[in-house]
UniProtKB/TrEMBL annotation:
Molecular function in Gene Ontology: DNA-binding transcription factor activity
GO cellular component, one term: cytosol
Organism: Dulcicalothrix desertica PCC 7102
Family annotation (PROSITE patterns): CNMP_BINDING_3
Protein name from the UniProt record: Transcriptional regulator
Pfam family, one: cNMP_binding
Record domain Cyclic nucleotide-binding: where: 12-131
Length: 227
């Protein structure tokens, strides 16, 4: 992967020097996982940070005898950084929702890179603060109507990972169970809201291609702001 393309794909690396990115590519290992495969397991020790080149994954946590999705990540994002920074076991699983291609960088190499490139170090802090703000926003929305919360989730996925298409911004057709978990609403509520949004033509669900097109972003944004 060319240095410039790698920098454009990953917001974390937007301020990193070309030398830093070239060094990262030299020490990175490429992985491919099929749908449903566990990429990382909860309670395993953190030994690498992972970058999503293509595909979609979900971060989940054990909830009794079941699992609960905490986040959906797509192309251009990264995960595994918390376990390597605080040197503790991982607190979540990461599961491939689609065939996924990743790059991993070992803990020691990644820590060295952060110390060598102050711009990347600063950008890493910015990204972690952004994630914290997102968590705070979700906490603020806990009392919001389910439709508002789900619209916020759809907009977030579209803005972070969506690809422009002739039918709108395209995201992966996440299951209603995962949508419900991430949005913190009931599965039945998620199904009814998604059907309603589809009927209104604010979104278009293409089950054959396993994609959701966010057709009317303005309406979804207006709905998401009703907190």
């Amino acid at each position: 992967m060319l240095t410039a393309i790698f920098s454009e794909t990953f917001p974390l690396l937007s301020t990193a020097s070309p030398q830093t990115i070239e060094w990262m590519l030299n020490v990175a290992t490429e992985h491919e996982y099929p749908t449903g495969r566990a990429v990382l397991m909860e309670d395993s020790w953190g030994n690498a940070v992972y970058f999503v080149i293509s595909g979609w994954v979900k971060v989940r946590r054990t909830a009794g005898e079941d699992y609960r999705a905490l986040a959906i990540l797509g192309r251009g994002d990264f995960f595994g950084e918390m376990a390597i920074l605080d040197e503790s076991p991982r607190s979540t699983d990461v599961i491939a929702l689609t065939p996924v291609k990743l790059l991993s960088i070992s803990r020691n190499c990644f820590i060295q890179i952060l110390f060598k490139d102050p711009q990347l170090h600063h950008r890493m802090l910015q990204m972690m603060v952004r994630r914290l703000r997102h968590v705070n926003m979700r906490l603020q929305m806990r009392q919001a109507p389910p439709a508002v919360k789900l619209a916020y989730t759809l907009i977030s996925l579209g803005e972070n990972y969506g690809q422009e298409s002739e039918n709108g911004r395209e995201i992966f057709n996440v299951s209603c169970q995962d949508f419900a978990d991430v949005t913190e609403i009931g599965v039945d509520e998620a199904e009814k809201i998604m059907e309603k949004l589809h009927e209104k033509r604010w979104i278009n669900i293409d089950a054959n291609k396993q994609v959701i097109n966010l057709v009317n972003l303005n309406q979804l944004m207006n709905l998401a702001r009703k907190v």
